[in-house]
């Protein structure tokens, strides 16, 4: 059935253009169902090559939006998409092949397989913190699966969005891949349409809005959300390495990363040494004074003054309730600057204990009993990531068996996002579904079950039922008890 959306009287120009493109992609989506692996790979290769060729332009836009260091732009925006594209190009022919399914006892005489089909018209809504990565990474998967796509990037990073718009319109015809800038009204207009799949990356609060809108059309969703991802450091951890790695994961993009360590539980016996290691790392990476940190070419800014005020408010609330600043603490809303900050002695009622930080504040929480930490983690919504620093196998097993998270790193942070052979996604409040590699291809595909009959054994069970039919059913029931 053609699900074109009719034009309504009084529709504004933005809504009319969105609906025009949505309708335009209908015939293309039908045509792409029979597209070959080579055709899809050619599009992905063109996207990859263009990103590499225009990386300096992307670097400049990232710096204009929030002073993101050029190397950080390459590492977190460009190269992850390049790796995703290379993985898809390398494996797509294998992914697209039908997967045979062995017959069960009741299906003897049949042949069966799973056939991967494009879902159709897809919507990709991406956030402001890594707009290129989190728009074009899912786009690679959407193209690999044979879909059309409309991308809606965040309006909060206008320079990066402008580059993305230019690239999309140079690379693709609008009936295959289109992109719309704009504020929340553009997202609302897009979400009112009956897409075949929606891939959203953002906060749990907006994820609920997306899911509610999708439910009106029974549209499938992939939601990559966030949450307060905990880190645990036990007595056996390599503290120097943990400090360098955790602070790298925390302060990359100035803490504006969905899988960044939100807070650290550190055993009381090693807390002092860990804090000292962290202070040394901060001084070496960004400088020892506020002015040095402001001049640092390695420290991005908060995306805007509103978010700076929000993060500064979390810090001020914690301080007023008795928290102690161990390092950093400087805030300049006008400059969208917050120093990389370590804090401890945080009371349970502080807002920073319940709200996702998404900024350069790292609470350090002392613990004595690992089971208490596990209990605190389980008392909160399931996180997108959990990090554990330990050499103790018993502790590692205890944490893995008694907690849940979208993904976990042992003696590392954030790299689960880069592992193309692993599913990336959350659980419940931190997300629904997975992306990346084969999992991204499947997210944008319908797994169609196909059965072909060779010998019509089922006719034995057509009415009227004979005594022979009853004997066969009785035999099947007896054999069922012998299986497994």
Walkthrough of the structure:
- The mean pLDDT is 95.
- Strands 10-13-14-9-8-15-16 form a seven-stranded mixed β-sheet, with helices on both faces.
- It is globular.
- Helix content is 45%, strand content 17%.
- Helix 5 (131-144) links the parallel strand 3 and strand 4.
- The protein has 16 helices and 18 strands.
- The chain has 484 residues and is an alpha/beta fold.
- The longest helix has 27 residues, at 70-96.
- It folds into two domains: 13-225 and 435-446, Aldehyde Dehydrogenase, Chain A, domain 1, CATH 3.40.605; 230-425, Aldehyde Dehydrogenase, Chain A, domain 2.
CATH architecture annotation of the largest domain: 3-Layer(aba) Sandwich
What is the tally of helical segments? 16
Low-confidence stretches: none
Total discrete domains: 2
Shape descriptor reads globular
> Mind telling me the CATH class of the largest domain?
Alpha Beta
Portion in beta strands: 15-25%
- Report Rg: 26 Å
Main pleated sheet: 7 strands, mixed
Observed structural traits:
alpha/beta; Aldehyde Dehydrogenase, Chain A, domain 1; Aldehyde Dehydrogenase, Chain A, domain 2; six-stranded mixed beta sheet; 16 helices; 45% helix; 17% strand; globular
In short:
By secondary structure, the chain is of the alpha/beta class.
Task: Please describe the topology of this protein.
Elements: H1 13-32, H2 37-53, H3 55-66, H4 70-96, E1 99-101, E2 110-118, E3 121-125, H5 131-144, E4 148-152, H6 158-171, E5 177-179, H7 184-191, E6 197-201, H8 204-215, E7 220-224, E8 230-233, H9 239-251, E9 263-267, H10 271-286, H11 290-295, H12 305-320, E10 324-327, E11 331-332, E12 337-338, E13 341-344, E14 361-367, H13 370-378, E15 385-389, H14 393-402, E16 407-410, E17 431-432, H15 437-443, E18 445-453, H16 467-482
Parallel strand pairs: 3-4, 3-6, 4-5, 6-7, 8-9, 8-15, 9-14, 13-14, 15-16
Antiparallel strand pairs: 1-2, 2-18, 7-17, 10-13, 11-12
Helix pairs in contact: 2-4, 3-4, 3-6, 4-5, 5-15, 9-10
